[in-house]
């Protein structure tokens, strides 16, 4: 289990993809999955970012689109595989605002996903954005989202073997 965070366009997704491909080759894994958490046709900028991400991946990737129930979808994946989840930032937003779910729901889904991954011997790389390093926004909805995302990050990092932060393309290993 690996957690990678960083600012927007910091290089975190590229690092995650490189790590996943290396693990896939070294472990002779059964499959290489990319779980995309973004909802399709969100807006023009997001659609462009989706296209860039898709173009950067080789044909060995199997894309799974899941904006909400990442813990359920992992049940469909092959055992002994590699899974990259990109990203927890968008997923947390989807769960919080689309379902009006509480922090406990998000944490439970992450814990369920990690347990299923362990049971099925699936290596997981989580990607997420650093949002708590910006100037605080006084909007209560934004604050709830940032606090929820940070709680999800803490949960994931606790469950992961490694944690990295990417700044300007340079990974820093924290755990």
Throw out a few tags for this protein:
alpha/beta; 7-stranded mixed sheet; 6 helices; nucleotide-binding; EC 2.7.7.62; ATP-binding
In short:
The protein is an alpha/beta fold and 175 residues long.
What structural class should be given to the helix and strand makeup?
A: alpha/beta
Give the C-alpha Rg: 15 Å
Outline the low-pLDDT stretches: none
The 3D shape can be described as: globular
Describe this structure in words.
- This protein is α/β, with parallel strands linked by helices and 175 residues long.
- 47% of the residues lie in helices and 21% in strands.
- It is built from six helices and seven strands; from the N terminus they run βαβαβαβααβαββ.
- It has helices at residues 12-27, 44-56, 70-73, 88-98, 103-120, 140-159, and strands at 2-6, 32-36, 61-65, 82-86, 123-129, 162-167, 170-173.
- The protein has a seven-stranded mixed sheet with strand order 3-2-4-5-1-6-7, sandwiched between helices.
- Strand 6 and strand 7 (170-173) form a beta hairpin.
- Helix 5 packs parallel to helix 6 (140-159).
- The radius of gyration is 15 Å and the shape is globular.
- The mean pLDDT is 89.
What is the topology?
Blueprint: E1 2-6, H1 12-27, E2 32-36, H2 44-56, E3 61-65, H3 70-73, E4 82-86, H4 88-98, H5 103-120, E5 123-129, H6 140-159, E6 162-167, E7 170-173
Parallel strand pairs: 1-5, 1-6, 2-3, 2-4, 4-5
Antiparallel strand pairs: 6-7
Helix pairs in contact: 4-6, 5-6
């Amino acid at each position: 289990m690996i957690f990678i965070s960083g600012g927007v366009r910091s290089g975190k997704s590229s690092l995650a993809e490189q790590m996943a491909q290396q693990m896939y080759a070294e472990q002779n894994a059964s499959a290489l999955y990319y779980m995309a958490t973004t909802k399709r046709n969100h807006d023009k900028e997001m659609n462009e970012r989706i296209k860039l991400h898709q173009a950067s991946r080789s044909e060995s990737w199997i894309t799974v689109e899941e904006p909400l129930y990442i813990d359920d979808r992992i049940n469909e994946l092959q055992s002994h595989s590699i899974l990259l989840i990109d990203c927890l930032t968008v997923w947390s937003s989807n769960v919080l605002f689309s379902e009006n779910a509480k922090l406990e729901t998000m944490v439970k889904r992450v814990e369920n996903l990690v347990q299923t991954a362990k049971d099925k011997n699936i290596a997981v790389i989580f990607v997420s954005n650093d949002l708590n390093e910006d100037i605080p926004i006084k909007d209560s909805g934004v604050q709830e989202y940032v606090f929820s995302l940070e709680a999800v990050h803490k949960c994931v990092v606790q469950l992961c073997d490694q944690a990295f932060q990417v700044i300007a393309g340079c990974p820093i290993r924290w755990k």
